[in-house]
Description:
By secondary structure, this protein is α+β, with helices and mostly antiparallel strands. Among the domains are: 2-35 and 99-148 and 246-381, no CATH class; 493-602, no CATH class. Helix content is 47%, strand content 12%. The chain has 23 helices and 17 strands. It has helices at residues 2-18, 20-24, 33-50, 81-86, 90-116, 119-130, 133-137, 142-158, 164-177, 181-195, 200-217, 219-228, 281-291, 295-309, 316-320, 324-327, 337-358, 363-381, 392-407, 432-436, 450-457, 464-468, 602-621, and strands at residues 232-233, 418-419, 448-449, 473-475, 481-483, 491-492, 496-499, 514-516, 523-524, 530-537, 540-547, 551-558, 563-567, 570-572, 574-577, 581-586, 589-597. The strands form 5 sheets. It has a 5-stranded antiparallel β-sheet with strand order 10-11-17-13-14, with no helix packed on it. A 4-stranded antiparallel β-sheet has the order 6-12-16-15, with no helix packed on it. Strands 2-4-5 form a 3-stranded mixed β-sheet, with no helix packed on it. Helix 9 (164-177) packs across helix 11 and helix 14 runs antiparallel to helix 17 (337-358). The longest helix has 27 residues, at 90-116. It is elongated.
Amino acid sequence: MPATRFILAALVLATILFWAIPLFQPHATIHWDLADVSYPAQKYFSDSVHAGRLPYWTPFLYSGTPFLSDPQTGAWYPLHWPFYLIGITPRILFWELALHSFLALAGAFLLARKLFEDPVAAVIAAMFYAWGGFFAAHSSQLGMFEAAALLPWLLWASLADRRSWLLSGTFAGLIILTGNFDAAVYCFLASACFLITRPWKRAAVLVVATPAIGFCLSAVVMLPWLQIAHYTTHPLTSPAASLRPIALAAVMSADYFGLISGNYRGPEEIRQFYLYGGLLLLPLAIAGLMRKLQMRPIMALIVPGLWYAFGPAGGLARLLKMLPGFRDAHAPVEIWFVPALGLALAAGSGAAWAAEKMGQKRLPFILMVIIAADLWHFNMYKSPLVYASTTFEELYGKRQENFEDRIREVKQQPFYRLWMSNPSITIGALDGSLATRTEVSWGAGLLELNRYAEYTRAIPSNPLLLHGLGANYLVDSRGRLELNPSALSRVSVPQRVTSGGYAELASLDPARGSVVEGWTKTLTQQQPSELTVTGYREDFYQIRYSAAADTLIRIAVPFAPGWRAAVDGMPVAVLPVDYALSGVLVPAGQHQLTLEFRPKYFLVGAALSIATAIGVILLSLW
């Protein structure tokens, strides 16, 4: 045990040294998805919690979206909470990556030591995995990076002598809470293949207990997400891709596609195909496979992982596509971290075997130095994938500040909304509107409501729909602002209401009337003598009105399950108006209408997660 503590302390130091440039260098900053999506989402959530509220709904992306129902925010992942408490800055995101780099290092070490009972082989295996090309390439995709870092812990837990089912379930829950469901599904596939090599009784217990405990721990995320899953779409930020056999050359050649030299000639999305694992990875892995020690668990990671990575052409991806979890996985090549772990384990075993055969006890330590220098040089120092060699202020901050200066007066107005056909970094991070709390119609990486996405895609062919969206200011690709005087008010009463849905968007003029699905008659409406918004928060509207007859009030916020309406405290239905927006049919007279967003199953999910977490802790102490 003292030796293990010493090794883990050394791994902490090694992680800090490996990540020293992005952690401490002023001219190194986050970029790509880490800056465009993860940083704004974490800062928004942290600031909201510090202000004493939970952001169930945010109007600062896509004209409104159910923020806490989106697993990708990582809001409930426990290892984010200390950083939320400190306060989110661009530099903090590098510390989150470094923490999970250490977890990948420590987890792979514990897994390899359990398999080989050799701490030296375990350290070498851990270095190959945690500092390999997958983590360098996906350092801007936080959820995937974190889930891959926890995979060795999930496998190690299945080998534990006591309470393995409890440990496995706990790590399964953490993997789900990271928010990247593709990576989580790949982790569970790896775990299932790994368990095949274990005694069947233990495997049977783990197959049942691991997903059950994992689901219960992550219920605070899973239950609200299941409520909206069929109503949302994820905007793909990278193309779907499968591994090609020729691309495996990148495992031993960091510059195979010309990334390091700056003469890139590879696939469209380099992050999916940067596989560099070090010059010694494959030779040592081959030696480890020839040794035939723990061959079955190692091959259980390498073979299915590679087979799936080859995509539909390989056959396994097409077969697994029929399963719910794999149905939405769009890039089979991103399972690479699973075979990478298998290769790392084999390489660690091979290094120990080579030292034993050659009678050179110092050889593994020499190899450690070579491996660390090789992987740091190419996967950190030379790689443009981990960080941008500039300051956040230069890359994003100045653009955001300039844009904020232009819209400062606009943001003082009630119910403003900015429209931009395509988000652009010319005005800062793509989802920077979250961090600056600016109500916009666009977004980049988080979930978008399906109906809203279809509505906005119909705007180029029917520009009148833009006015119905309530976007009273237009932003061009250079960040210049233009008033849209034809925009309808956020809350309005359409002149005419008829039945209709998506098909009517092609000819709809929201200024003249609205369509409601399942509406049974045509209704010509008289404008109410009073229609005033008396209260407004991000997820709440309070409206006072006075109408001579039953009236449909149209609210230009995206329709989603979770919106609840009440007239003088009595519940009324929220209807999809103009296919994508919200409306409420209210009774005649002078009344007060309230509209509030609350995920139906959030409290149930939170209670289940808390109860499970308490149960896990008590069982662990028992």
